[in-house]
Design a protein that fits this description.
16 helices, Aspartate Aminotransferase, domain 2, 2 domains, 389 residues, binds pyridoxal-5'-phosphate, Aspartate Aminotransferase, domain 1, 44% helix, alpha/beta
Length: 389
């Protein structure tokens, strides 16, 4: 992979751990795109989209599926379908993607009010807190209609939630006449890690949004699944949001390759994440909670004795061609996907070592200065000035 500007400009090997969204379509995917049978999906007749939707619905054990442009659109449409009556409220986790990273779209576009319940560190919501958050029938309150959870939980390090919990939450929802939506952007990773079929994991849910472009490694899109009635309403909303796309089979085709060829190998990404985490526990200045590395993410905590902030670690790593993301002042994230090999992991561990080593950083500075045009110019000026005297 090329094209990443590092400070020295000499690094050839790039290991891109910023996210599982950075994968490039494989040759098989491009071939599938070129050969895809297509027709007008707004008219509902694109055969490749139809196949993808049917397969995803079957994997999730639901009636039907709908291809949408993104995970954000999938969650937005799902929440809006469940909360189609004005004055609706949704119970969501304090660390959820819907709450933090979707521009508050369910409110700005859908007029849905959010009732935020604090996420536990394992990604769940405390069932008592959820029950307490459900509004009684009273004119002062909005009407609770929906509960959302996220599996795996992205901002809590890719923790996965088992079916036992989800069943209980679903039971609670049904007792109160509420719907349950699962933001399953990485539900394939959860199912792999728990060794439970997806269908079982989402049995209690009324709808699920599954990203094709995260761990599955397809270039574009998500699929939402649910009952026939849910999908019929979702299809109308998708059109209103500008998400009705014509010869969409060209995007469904690589997603089918992902489901058939990549979904079954996600355990390799999880192994690689664990390998990195293990390697990093031996390095001073950072800490990884090994037990919390359940899927394809590693959250690296920067300890107080570290000379570098998370941002500085990312910058330093970038000089070695290791791309990561600083989530906060003291948290760096590395995410694994099918285009990262075991050898990349060993290389990344060595680069973390170098990035955090004081002597190596000093050496880098000297090399960078030596290679820097301005520094060389400055030296020439100083030398010239010294020569004349
Ligand atoms: C990425 C992500 C989304 C949104 O998907 P986009 O395709 O980026 O819009 C939603 N939920 C979770 C948990 C995600 O990780």
């Amino acid at each position: 992979m090329a094209g990443h500007e590092t400070a020295n400009g000499y690094v050839k090997r790039i290991v891109d751990l910023r996210s599982d969204t950075v994968t490039k379509p494989t040759p098989e995917m491009r071939q599938a795109m070129a050969n895809a049978l297509v027709d007008d999906d707004v008219l509902g007749v694109d055969p490749t989209v139809d196949q993808l939707q049917k397969e995803m619905a079957q994997i999730c054990g639901k009636d039907a599926g709908l291809f949408v442009a993104s995970g954000t659109m999938g969650n937005l449409i799902s929440v809006l379908v469940h909360c189609e009556v004005r004055g609706s409220e949704v119970i969501i986790g304090s660390e959820s993607h819907i709450h933090h990273y979707e521009q508050g779209g369910i409110s700005t576009l859908g007029h849905v009010y959010s009732n935020i319940v604090p996420n536990e560190s394992d990604g769940t919501l405390d069932l008592r807190k959820v029950e307490d958050a459900i509004r009684p029938d009273d004119v002062h309150y909005p009407t609770t209609r929906l509960i959302c959870i996220e599996n795996t939980h992205g901002s809590l390090g890719g923790r996965c939630i088992g079916s036992e919990y989800t069943d209980k939450l679903g039971g609670l929802a049904r007792r109160y006449g509420l719907k349950l939506h699962i933001d399953g952007a990485r539900i394939f990773n959860a199912a792999t890690a728990l060794n439970v079929p997806i269908q079982r994991l989402v049995e209690a849910a009324d709808s699920v949004s599954v990203c094709l472009s995260k761990g599955l490694g397809a270039p574009v899109g998500s699929v939402i699944v649910g009952s026939f009635e849910f999908i019929a309403k979702a299809r109308r909303l998708r059109k209103a949001l500008g998400g009705g796309m014509r010869q969409l089979g060209v995007l469904a085709a690589p997603a089918l390759v992902s489901i058939h060829d990549i979904a079954g190998k996600l355990h390799i990404d999880h192994q690689n994440a664990h390998r990195l985490a293990e390697g990093l526990t031996r390095i001073k200045g950072i800490h990884v909670d090994l037990a919390s590395v359940e899927t394809n993410m590693v959250f690296v905590e920067v300890t107080e004795d570290s000379p570098l902030s998370a941002n500085e670690i990312c910058k330093s790593l970038k000089n070695y061609g290791i791309l990561t993301m600083a989530l906060t002042k003291n948290k760096v994230r590395a995410v694994f996907h099918h285009q990262i090999s075991e050898d990349d992991v060993q290389h990344a561990i060595r680069c973390f070592q170098n990035a955090l080593c004081r002597d190596c950083r000093l050496l880098w500075r000297i090399i960078q200065d030596a290679l820097c045009r301005d520094c060389r110019l400055l030296w020439r000026i100083i030398q010239d000035a010294l020569c004349r005297d």
